[in-house]
Amino acid sequence: MHHEKRSLGFYILAAFFALFVLFLYGPLSAILILSFQGPDGGLTFPLNGVSLHWFGNLFERQAVGDFGASFTRSLSLGLMVMVVTVVVSLLAGLAFRRRFKGASALFYLSVASLVVPSIIVSLGIGVVFQQLGLRPAWYSSAFGAHLTWTLPFGVLIMFAVFNRFSPAYEEAARDLGASSWQTFRHVLLPMIAPSLIGVGLFGFSLSYDEFARTLMTAGTYNTLPLEIYGMTTNVTTPVLYALGTVTTLFSFTIILLALAVIMILRRRSARMG
Amino acid sequence: MTAAIVEDEAQMEKPAKPAAERLGRLAAAAASYLQALPLTLILGFFFVLPILTIIIVSFWDYDFAGIYPDFMTMNYTDTLGSWVTWKTYLNTLRYAAIVWVLTLVIGFCVAYFLAFHVRTAAMQMVLFLVCTVPFLTSNIIRMISWIPVLGRNGLVNSTLVQAGIIPAPIEWLLYSDFAVVLAMVHLYTLFMVTPIFNTLMRIDRSLIEAARDAGASGWQTLWNVIIPLAKPGMAIGTIFVVTLVMADFSTVQVMSGGQSASVALMMKNQMSLLQYPAAAANAVVLLILVLLMVAGILRVVDIRKEL
């Protein structure tokens, strides 16, 4: 079966797939190229010289507001969301391995949190904070709003992981006299570590790019996506593209880093097992 | 032999079992509740409480200065009695329908190619990641990136004009319904590819060989074997795409250049005018609509079995 001749269907679908990839990455590469626009260049092709002018412009306060500070806020928020998403999803995944009263309700609550329009969650949290007399801020209300989006993803991933996880390994460890903590730490955790990195990557990226849920909950200080959204209406120079290039490259770096860690963990467990 | 020993031990332990087992089961139940507690608390405070608050506030009164506890249905009658609201809902549903069909077809073709035509698992993984990576970058940046492509002096227009295919730039490429739909397909197709790919990978390949042995043509196999088995994946993808489009306001705002409306955009405008009760009434109507749609789709698929 493996050396069968390729059918016509293969070539059509392969061409379709190539077009799809072009569709995904083409526009992104357009702004990547245009961010190197010369100082007199505009928002569209052709390139009017090549320069780093707009990247320099990025760090001048008057051009784009406070890019550095909003980046720092988004980064810290992303890391906070990542840690909480990994820990809480892992715990919930462990809980779902046994039947308990309310398990179904909790599962469908997580699904609901995924499908309810984000702007409704944003409005709701905004009004709750207002009624409780609390001041919304990126580290409190926006943090919670992001968790309602990242946690369901994390819980569903852990649910899928444990669905395929054989309890035989843990039983073997227990039979060999391991305590339940030792079983968790030395048997379960190494085996699901790559999935946990995946959950962490999701948690960080979804939060770092989240926008609708932050809208009503960020308070006085903007996160980076809010800053960029504001720029789409009033910035008409390629500095917008420079910002896009910088944050996209940052996202790519994070993704590659996470993938590298997953590969290393997989290879190590393959060597040991 | 090991099995025999285990059995032996089990028999030896028998007299002590009831009390210990009951205690063990109690401890396990307690552990489950403790492990589920953080998730329950977070969703309780940041999801259930806000939704309940929205439902309550949707009956409140408001003016330019603030919102006041009350029980009146004016927010609903205002919203549902307005011709603009109905038009906006219809427009949003239209976006959802068009984007759903496009993402379903594109998503299925891409997933089918990955699952059945790519032969090595490593290549499959790499190509799948190529599709997934953009999903983990900023939606707004991905939207903005269409501007130099579709704009009046953008890549598409200047290429077509230079090639002499059209005399003047096409105006409706950007800031139009076309641009909104294109950007939504661009942003959301991944949500269709992933679940469909997941179900296609789990189809037992011997079923396809059996179909071929029984004389089915390629199309017959696709239509009678593969597509029915891929339905759960399509259903999950549909839930994602439909709920994302129904909730969208930024794509509609940026890509239509403010010329088109969606329900969420209408809500956002009410929110920026601090008309929270009016926005809340809209939120409740939208919420009911979305939950009905999801409930309808869930009749086709049991999510817990598909994970």
Which helices and strands, and how do they pair?
The complex is a heterodimer of chains A (273) and B (307).
Chain A: H1 8-34, H2 53-58, H3 61-64, H4 67-95, H5 103-115, H6 118-131, H7 141-163, H8 168-175, H9 180-209, H10 224-234, H11 239-272
Chain B: H1 2-13, H2 17-57, E1 61-62, E2 67-68, H3 74-80, H4 83-117, H5 121-132, H6 139-144, H7 147-150, H8 155-162, H9 177-201, H10 205-213, H11 218-246, H12 250-255, H13 263-272, H14 276-298, H15 303-306
Antiparallel strand pairs in B: 1-2
Helix pairs in contact in B: 3-14, 4-9, 4-11, 9-11, 10-11, 11-14, 13-14
What portion of residues of chain B belong to β-strands?
under 5%
What is the averaged pLDDT score of chain A? 86
CATH fold label of chain B: MetI-like fold
Order of helices and strands of chain A: HHHHHHHHHHH
Q: What is the distance, rounded to the nearest whole angstrom, between the alpha carbons of the first and last residues of chain B?
A: 36 Å
Describe this structure in words.
- Chain A is an all-alpha fold and 273 residues long.
- Chain A has a domain at 66-234: MetI-like fold (Orthogonal Bundle).
- Chain A contains 11 helices and no strands.
- With 307 residues, chain B is mainly α.
- Chain B has a single domain (84-306), classed as MetI-like fold, CATH 1.10.3720.10.
- Chain B is built from 15 helices and 2 strands.
- Chain B has a two-stranded antiparallel ribbon.
- In chain B, helix 3 crosses helix 14 (276-298) and helix 10 crosses helix 11 (218-246).
- The relative contact order of chain B is 0.12.
- Residues 1-15 of chain B have low confidence and may be disordered.
- Chains A and B meet through helix 1, helix 4, helix 5, helix 6 and helix 7 of A and helix 2, helix 4, helix 5, helix 6 and helix 7 of B.
